Amino acid sequence: MTDADSTGDAAAPSSIITPGHVKVTLDQVHSGRVIDLSVSMAMGTPRLPGQSPFFMTLYRTPQEQQRQMAEAGVDNNAGFALERVELDLHTGTHVGALGHVAMGDAM
Q: For residue 103, what are the β-bridge partners?
């Protein structure tokens, strides 16, 4: 296990979960079923009091992107939509609760 990931962040998941950990976990899965606990992400997604809302908007259309790429000298006429997403890290379904939940003084 390394002390830090490539960005120098010692708390990054890549410094905690090694390929060996992944292999051991996958080797324990022999059969079973997948239960989808996910919550759809959309404007109006339920949130806790004080939690910032989920927000998604179209930042640039494919046509706008084509025009900007052409102005930059790219002549392949490719365009793609660019979306901007803003959300609180606790928005929707997540499984990292034990890493950031406190009960009194205990984490």
A: 106
